[in-house]
Amino acid sequence: MGKRNIENKRKTNMYVIGSAGLIILASCIIAFFTYTHKLKEFAEETTLQKNNMSEILNNALDLDNNTTESASSKIGKKVEELENDNKNNTVKATNTKTKQSTKTNTTTKSSESSAKNNTVEVIQDDVQDPVFLMPIEKGEISQKFASDNLIYSETLEEWITHKGIDIKAEKATVVKASAAGNITDIKNDPRYGLSVIIEHTNGYKTIYSNLLTAEFVKKGESVTQGQTLGTVGNTATFEVADESHLHFEILKDDENVDPEVYLVD
After folding, report:
1. Which CATH superfamily is domain 132-264 in?
2. CB contact at 8 A, 169 and 244
3. Annotated domain spans of the chain
4. Which DSSP string do the residues of 225-254 spell out, in sequence order?
5. What is the four-CA torsion angle of 134, 137, 140, 141, rounded to 10 degrees?
6. What is the pLDDT of residue 42?
7. Burial class (CB in 10 A: 0-12, 13-18, 19+), 262
8. Cα–Cα distance measured from residue 225 to residue 200, given in angstroms and rounded to the nearest whole number
9. Which residues in the chain show pLDDT less than 70?
10. Which of 135, 179, 188, 203 lies at a 20 to 30 A Cα distance from 261?
11. Strands 193-199, 165-168: parallel, antiparallel or unpaired by DSSP?
């Protein structure tokens, strides 16, 4: 009885172990087939992905080539347009320079012509200095011009300068214009008495002083050379002690000069 039990127990154990082994083996087989199937699916997916990636890369390369060609075409077009624009700008600049050069030449010629005309006008306006005649016929100089040296004044009883010349003449002797000009003033000078001032060309003036009368002319009047201005008097307070005479001055640009240098016979 004990042996039988032991034998049965052993059989049972062997059965259990065998069953377990079969289960394990079946599980391994199932796992192997499952893994193989999964591995196949993975391989197929990998192949598909590779094919897709290859297609995508090819499409990307084609797109890139097309884009590059388009960009290259656009760049080439832009370069060509820029070259054309540069050529056009160069032509325009050349035309502008030509026009400016033409205008400059025209302006230069106009300026030269204007300068020539102005030169002609200047030459035409180059008026000669007036010729001065003695304001009293056959007058004799009794007192000379003294600017840098002194002369003795009988009236003032001192040594003084003398800005003109004194021409000896009797009272009421006619005084004439030394040169043609315009009478700018007729006045009573506190030093030299009744005076007539004539303005001539080129900045010259003449002054006729110590007059008795000046009733023959008026201020603003134009006079000719030799025209009567007045008569000799004795109105110069600075020369009242001197013998009867005409005090005569010549000025150049408002500066007194020696009348004897300018008077002609």
Report:
1. Glucose Permease (Domain IIA) (2.70.70.10)
2. yes
3. 1-126, 132-264
4. TT-EEEEE----GGGTTSPSEEEEEEEETT
5. -30
6. 58
7. middle
8. 11
9. 1-9, 11, 33-125
10. 188
11. unpaired
